[in-house]
Amino acid sequence: MKKNWLYFLLKLTVSCVLIIYILSNFQVEQLFHRLEDIELWHLFSATMIFVLLMFNNTLRWYIVINAIGSALPYKTSFKIFYIGLFFNQTLPSSVGGDAVRMYLANKEGLSLTSAINSVLLERIATLLGLIILVVICQPLLTSKMGGDHTQLIFPLLFTLSVTGIICLMFLDRLPEKLTRFRILAGISTLGRSAKKLFLSPANAARSIILGITGNIILSLIVFLLSQSLFLDLSFLDCLVLIPPVVLVSTIPISIAGWGVREAAMITLLALVGVAEADAFVLSVLFGLLTFGLSLPGGIVWIIGGYKVDDTK
Asked: Which ranges of 91-172 does DSSP label H, i.e. alpha helix?
């Protein structure tokens, strides 16, 4: 428990240090002026698209659940996915949204093994879809960066991801002596589940495509938010630049990506001429939108009959 809190404090420190450093580069008053002039129609549109993102991401998890031989109604999957988002975004706790999803999926009828494996494999499919989208958009990204020094980074990440998945699928062949240990037995079972998902062309394609579409929708949300701030940013710019931002912000070194996301957003949007203050405001607005729209997940958690003690 003590280690979990130390890890949380470390992530909180990273988020705070990065945000304070960024804020030191310009006047805070600039942020408030940008937010005062926000265009509400595009903000509302981004909110509606965010709902679409939730349906997309829930469907991806639903497909993974069924692919590994389990079953959970889509409505229940959506409820649990939303609760997971709430925990990821709002609580300063060592309990992450994924852990909550695993627990609640088990409570709703999945075996503990299936609950854990479904969430882990859904995350893998999401990350693979994100990397594929980045690789597809890389020629445009390279042209914007004005050089080719980064052209091998994302293909290398894709190669490592595919290699990792292949290695994972072979782990179901661990010697019986090793599978007597609980952790190794769990890894072996995860390998079998990975085979069911990724060796089925239909299941693999659907889960990865939904990983790609999820990140396209995310890019659309950022584009709409940029329009609400009257920034000179095209949807193509967002499609090329936002996936790498998301990829960087998934590194678990900060609280819900705060600080890391802002630094990445400022760095990459500078390639298309977006001022540092504007990129920071855009990133904060996206973070606040995600935070605000995750709050109903807390209501779903409460009215779903789950006790507070259940997630501890």
From this structure: 97-107, 112-145, 153-170
**Which pair of tokens denotes residue 81?**
């996915």
Q: Is 230 left (phi over 0), alpha (psi -120 to 50) or beta?
A: left
Residue 95 has pLDDT above 60, yes or no: no
The pLDDT assigned to 11 comes to 72
- Token pair, residue 70, equals 């389990």
CB–CB of 34/277 below 8 Å?
A: yes
The set of residues, in sequence order, having a beta carbon less than 8 Å from that of 244 and lying 6+ positions away, is 134, 141, 154, 264, 268
Least confident of 164-168, 199-203, 239-243: 164-168
**Model pLDDT, residue 308:** 45
* pLDDT tens digits along 14-49: 778 878 877 777 666 666 676 777 888 999 999 999
Question: Model-level pTM?
Answer: 0.84
Find the distance separating the first CA and the last CA of the chain, reported in whole Å.
11
Q: Which amino acid is at 138?
A: Q
The count of other CB atoms within 10 Å of the CB of residue 189 is 19
DSSP string, 37-82: T--HHHHHHHHHHHHHHHHHHHHHHHHHHHHTT----HHHHHHHHH
* CB 61, CB 119: distance < 8 Å: yes
Closest CA to 179 of 115, 113, 123, 119: 113
Classify residue 182 by burial, with Cβ atoms within 10 Å: 0-12, 13-18, 19+. exposed
Q: How far lies 255's CA from each of 10, 84, 92, in Å?
A: 9, 15, 8
Statement: residue 237 has pLDDT above 70: yes
- Contact criterion met (CB below 8 Å) for 298 and 86: yes
